[in-house]
């Protein structure tokens, strides 16, 4: 149904497209990852300047809630889409267009804020509301582009699903690195808002545009599809309820794994600044050149967590993903997934050992867990559905598994808030809990997961 001119479809099992064509189709993942990485780098500080801290924390829930609702809906509806432009590309095109318009509006908001130093309280409220609306708008639009992009990648990949997912993950890592390098070289994104959002717009145009133009999709006919069994907005419920047993096991392990990882990423700056570097947070963000030794130690810890450590995490992830198709082909997806979960158990050691170089190594090693579990989502879905050659539920089940990330986030927000309310500023505790939960994910895979996937 989806092919490039170099690899025409043949009878029998659908072959994979050429590698150059796969590089083209996977490119939009880079733009969507840049969007997520940029969300708090560019929008977070802006919200902090407009709203109280508790309000900003509340707005964080928009992300996972939107993911739970939008991703399965887009996946399920695109499975049934009979547009003459294809199943996936309409979502990519209109999602990208909506995202670009949102970014252009966002680039203007700081100027409005700066010009409104003496604005009335009502005007300041309107600016804050506009920022939150743009935040929600961006979440919906980027989710649409991301889900449709991954599904289109699967459609063209044929029997090269692991290679395609690995290339998509490489693009994802490169997107993160682009945002990191921008902030590293130029300083905080809030100081270069227009250039920052211009960069995002250019990458979105240059990656999504060629895919919408050059990838050929054969539209589905209505008679090919069974009648709908649920409302599209309830796809997240229906998708999780109807997951085959093995995908439900993977879903549970995915929730636990993401809970564990977010237990670190949600507090990484405070953990390194307070626990590892033994610094002081009070006034550290405003002291400038007059920081005390303790304040400087805190700032050094935050910089290490968000700078060198994150970049090493991404670079190692890039190298590992390049080897992933070979590992899956050689050892099988179940074995690779099981052993890839092992590095995230290191979060237990991270919470107990406060030696800088040891902690950096432990954090960087978790990239193996994250890149593996994300890269295997669609290959595992198709491995389960493959026996019946039924791909009409690919989008539904991919969206359902995407909610695992969001559920892990929501669960972590709640538990971390509860833990910190009892332990003050001891950020080692939520990380310790995250390491234990990651161990539970490994037990789930070892005891219950039986999917056999051993191909490129």
TrEMBL record:
Q: Which domain of life is it from?
A: Eukaryota
Any Gene Ontology CC annotation: membrane
Per its UniProt record, what InterPro entries does this chain match?
A: MFS_trans_sf (IPR036259)
Q: Per UniProt, what is the membrane topology?
A: Multi-pass membrane protein
Task: Give the Gene Ontology MF terms in alphabetical order.
Answer: sucrose:proton symporter activity
Which segments does the entry list as coiled coil?
none
* Entry keyword annotation includes RNA-binding: no
Q: Please state where this protein is localized.
A: Membrane
Transmembrane segment boundaries: 21-38, 58-78, 90-114, 126-153, 162-183, 195-215, 247-267, 312-329, 336-357, 363-385, 397-421, 427-449
Keyword annotations of the record: Membrane, Transmembrane, Transmembrane helix, Transport
Quote the protein name from its UniProt record.
Major facilitator superfamily (MFS) profile domain-containing protein
Species annotation:
Saprolegnia parasitica (strain CBS 223.65)
